[in-house]
Amino acid sequence: MFATVLLASGCTGTGGEEPQGSITVDRFSATPSQLYASDSSFVRLQIQATNTGSSDAEFAVGEKGNSVLRDSCPDFFKISSFDARTSTAPETQESYDVETGSRVDMDWRLDLRDGIRIPLQGYECGFDSLLRFNYSTSTFEQVQVKPSEDVENAPLDSGSSSGPMNLVIEPVPGTLGVEQSGRYVSGADNTVTVLFRLQGVKSDGKSGVVDIDESSFEASATQPLNTDGGGQSIGPQDCSNYPDGSRDLMLNKGESVDVRCELDVGSVDTSRVPEISASVDYTYLKNPGEETVRVDNTATQ
Q1: φ, ψ for residue 49 (rounded to 5)?
Q2: Cα–Cα distance between 199 and 18 in angstroms, integer?
Q3: For residue 59, how far is the Cα from the chain centroid?
Q4: Helices and strands (H and E) in the chain: how many
Q5: Mode of pairing for the β-strands spanning 166-172 and 193-199
Q6: How far apart are CA 167 and CA 160, in angstroms?
Q7: Residues of CATH 2.60.40.1530 domain(s) within the chain?
Q8: Rounded-to-integer distance, Cα 58 and Cα 94, Å
Q9: pLDDT at residue 240 in the model
Q10: Which of 55, 86, 198, 290 is the most exposed place for a label (fewest CB within 10 A)?
Q11: 3-class secondary-structure state, position 14
Q12: By three-state DSSP, how is residue 178 classified?
């Protein structure tokens, strides 16, 4: 006898609830919005973002903020200075551990390059950025394997960390039916199906994108559930469409994908409560939008 475990790892559906917790962009501004080629003034670019989720994250800044600022209009501007800080780390670093509720502040000074040629009609510089927050998420779900359907139901527990992506496990009913989902009878249920779902965030407007590190995906089960090789670690040999790093899984607006796996189930003489668990790392990519600054020739004003 063996149990089937369905691992859902997010990329094609759009159902499910919106994951709790995300990144809130509090500010993205470029001042002034207009300057002249003969000015000695500069542009101040500011980004503020808060980890409004319930999970801590690593935030990549890079040297002079180059992991965040993707387009600084380099033909016209040079980065003269860059400062960054968080609510708990006041000094500029290339990456930060951002606790839940903590804010990241970044501040660039951009000076006009010497000797630049401005078109007679002027030019609008667009500044584009991308925020990268790295997370780890995990989940577990208990099921019950009974020697007979007359055995009393045992209490079952489950849990999942929250963030811009959810990883949840949903047992599919066996011979006992929907009323006893997650409970199975040894000898009667040849397979047990469970759904692990990696669910991307759903939101209006400029929502973030979840970039999954497929190579970090791990899943396991405890006795009396066993893998094809007799162990507890679930791998590609137990599954179809297993996240093995061969694809580039990116989830947007609640997208998800399913992976199906099979586990052997040992016979039991008494009620057993095995636990199925999974974990994965991912990067949440948030685009704050774009700010523009108009550069004009004073001679044409």
Answers
A1: -140, 145
A2: 8
A3: 12
A4: 0, 24
A5: antiparallel
A6: 7
A7: 23-134+286-300
A8: 11
A9: 77
A10: 290
A11: coil
A12: helix
Give bridge partners of residue 168 from the DSSP assignment. Answer: 197
The CATH number of 23-134+286-300 is 2.60.40.1530
Amino acid occupying residue 63: E
d(CA 36, CA 189): 76
Tokens of 19: 């994951």
Q: How far apart are CA 185 and CA 1, in angstroms?
A: 11
Q: Tell me, what's the pLDDT at 120?
A: 73
Nearest to 23 by CA among 107, 106, 103: 103
297: which residues sit within 8 A by CB, 6+ positions away?
36, 37, 118, 120, 122
Question: Does position 4 have pLDDT exceeding 60, yes or no?
Answer: no
Burial group, residue 148, by CB count within 10 angstroms (0-12, 13-18, 19+): exposed
* Per-residue model confidence (pLDDT) at position 206: 56
CA gap 245, 234 in Å, rounded: 16
Coil/strand/helix, residue 248: coil
- From the list 244, 251, 278, 288, the residue with the least C-alpha distance to 106 is 288
With a CB cutoff of 8 Å and minimum separation 6, the contacts of 282 are 134, 135, 136, 137, 165, 198, 210, 211, 212, 213
What is the DSSP-derived secondary structure letter of residue 179? G
List phi, psi (to 5°) of 82: -145, 135
Residue 143's φ and ψ, nearest 5 degrees, are -125, 165
Residues 6+ apart with CB under 8 A from 284: 22, 23, 57, 132, 133, 134, 135, 163, 164, 165, 201, 208, 209, 210, 211
| pLDDT tens for each residue of 116-175 | 777 778 889 999 999 999 999 999 999 999 999 999 999 999 998 877 888 888 888 888
Angle of CA points 67, 73, 80, to nearest 5°: 70
**Two structure tokens written together for 171:** 């047992």
Whether 72 contacts 80, CB under 8 Å = no
